[in-house]
Structures are given as structure tokens and as C-alpha cells.
Amino acid sequence: MFLGPHDLIGTVSAQSQLIDKLIRSAKGETRGGLLRVGAAYAALVGWLYQDAGDLDAAAFWRGVTQEIALRSRDPHLIGYSLVNQAQVRTDLGDGHAVIDLCEAALDDADRLAPKVRVTSLQQQAHGASLVGDRDAVDGLIDQAGRLLGRVDDDMPWGNACRRTPGYLEVQRATCYGRLGLGAEAGALWSQVLAGVPDTARRDRGVYMARQATAAAAAREPDHALEIARAVAAIAVDTGSARMRRELSTLERAMRPWQDAPVGRDLAEVLATVTEGR
């Protein structure tokens, strides 16, 4: 929560490499357990690279995750690894690939733990938002919501759906933002942010940046600028690539006002983020 991806990648990837060495000599159930742990560590390395903005490295580690998951024969991890791949495709803007991967993960949904089904459904909603299908977004997130209360496994990976305040509303608000539904997204972000602790600065900054973009879509540029000032300070302190990406999206959304005073003020605010890299 307090450290950025650059502070953690070296440590976690070293642990992943150690697990890989142990797998090579282990046998029986010990080997099966190490494969499951190894897949979870590879997934975390992939996420850290994605958070750092290195999508090539993220895609590589998502591939490693999928390979180890397949070797483990664990259907839950295999489904989770497909969702991990879909996360990278989401950041690349490939909605159809996201939907394909999530549908593959859900092919045998009755065998899957509720957690895997929830993560698959919400990620598929992101794919639906990328192809402009609001009805599918709402249907998929509503379906995930009916399963969320059943997530009670002891698997140590993929627990964002239990740990993140307002998890599904975060997904819905993000999808609404992509669909250009500024007022609806803004209302959801206000609701979500009320439950996010100040200690979760990185997530809070990302959510606020998306809230600012929603304000721009709702034609509230002054409100967007006000939020952007706070986000820029967090982005400089944390060095979050996710926040910088969200601020770039905000910059595009604010182009109608780029020659107005509010647009020039936003350019000055965003310049502090660029200088802080």
C-alpha cells in the first residue's frame, strides 16, 4: 500500500525466481504447492510491471503466470491467469480480446471458485466498455455482485475483490468513464472515494484522476481542474505510472478548453507531474 512498484519489482521477482528453482527439484504435493505459489508470485510481478507502465514486461509475466497455472492443473489459477492476460489487453484498449479471454476463463464456471468468477465477470465488463456496450457492462457487474458475498476461499491470490472498498462500483465507474457517461461516473466516484482510506494514496489518486475525467465529460472543467491539482501532488510523490496514464486521459478530455484559462491552468498542473518523473 505504501511502496510503489519500482520498490517491489526486484524483491518479488527474486522470490519468484527462487520458487522456480525449487519447483525443478520438488516432487509430489510439494511440487504442486510450489507451482500454485509460483503462479501467484508471477501474477504479482506482472501486476507490478503493469502498475509501473511497462506493458511489455507485464505481458511477459502474465504469460509466465499462465504457463505455471497450466502446469499446476489448478482450474482456479488457470481461470485467474486468463483474467490477468485480460487486464493487460484492457490497458492496450483491445476490448474484443478482453472479452475472449474472460469468456474462456468462464467456460466451465461451475467448477470455479466465486472469486475467480467475480474477477472474470468484472474484467469482461471492462472489455464491454471498450466496445461501447453499456448494457453488457451493467449486466456483467450486476452478475458479479450477486456472487461477491460468496467469496470465502483461503486462496492467497486475487483478493482485491475482498480488500478493495467498493470494488465493483470502482469497476462500474471506470467503465462508465470509458463510455463517456460523465455524470453517472462522477456520482459513482464520489461514492467510492468516501470509503477509500487516506493511506491508500495510490488507488485514491487513480480514482480521483478518473473522477476528474468524468467531470470533464460532464462539462465541468473547473471541477476537473480542482481535482487534478490534488492528483498531481499524489502522482509526483508516488511516481505512479497508472496515475500519469489517467492524467493523460484527463488532458485529452479537457481539450475543448485548452485555450481557455482553465485549460492553461491544467497544463501548468500536469507539467509538474512530467517534471517529477
What ranges have pLDDT less than 50 throughout 5 or more consecutive residues? none
- CATH architecture label of the largest domain: Alpha Horseshoe
Mean pLDDT, as a whole number? 93
Task: Give the SSE string.
Answer: HHHHHHHHHHHHHH
The CATH topology of the largest domain, please? Serine Threonine Protein Phosphatase 5, Tetratricopeptide repeat
The largest sheet is: none
Q: Supply the number of structural domains.
A: 3
Q: How many helices in DSSP terms?
A: 14
Number of strands: 0
Q: Work out the radius of gyration.
A: 19 Å
Task: Please estimate the helix content.
Answer: over 70%
User: Shape from CA axes?
Assistant: globular
- Find the structural class using helix and strand composition: mainly alpha
Strand content: under 5%
The CATH C-level class name of the largest domain: Mainly Alpha
CATH superfamily of the largest domain: Tetratricopeptide repeat domain
Would you summarize the structure shown here?
The protein has 277 residues and is an all-alpha fold. The chain has 14 helices and no strands.
Question: Can you characterise this structure?
Answer:
- There is one protein chain.
- With 277 residues, the protein is mainly alpha-helical.
- It has three domains: 73 residues; 68 residues, no CATH class; 113 residues, Tetratricopeptide repeat domain (Serine Threonine Protein Phosphatase 5, Tetratricopeptide repeat).
- The protein contains 14 helices and no strands.
- The radius of gyration is 19 Å and the shape is globular.
